[in-house]
Amino acid sequence: MDAEPRQDTVPIRLAEIWRETLQVANVGEDSDFFELGGHSLLAIRVSVRASEAFGVEVPSGDLIADSSFRAMAERIEAARHEAAA
Q: Which domain holds residue 39?
C-alpha cells in the first residue's frame, strides 16, 4: 500500500479524483458535486476512490447529503485524524 497522504494533500488528491471521475477541468473549494455533473453512481465511484486513496471510509451518502467539495475534504481530514488518534 502507498504511503499515507499528508493531510495538506487531501484537497489536492481529492480534486484530482473529482476531475477524473466527473471529467471536468477544474474543481475548487466551492465546487458542488451535482452542479459539476455528478449523480448517485458517480458519488459511489468517488467515495470508493477516496476511501482507497486516503485509507478511511468515505460513505457515498455523505457526499449525497452535502455535495460540496469543501465538506467532503473536511470529512476526510476529520476521519483521518480520528483514525490516527
A: 7-84
Q: How far apart are CA 35 and CA 17, in angstroms?
A: 16
* pLDDT by 10s per residue, the chain, length 85: 445 545 568 999 999 999 999 999 999 999 999 999 999 999 999 999 999 999 999 999 999 999 999 999 999 999 999 999 8
CATH number of the domain residue 22 falls in: 1.10.1200.10
Radius of gyration of the chain (CA): 12
- According to DSSP, the residues that pair with 68 across neighbouring strands are 32
What's the domain count of the chain? 1
Nearest to 16 by CA among 5, 65, 39: 5
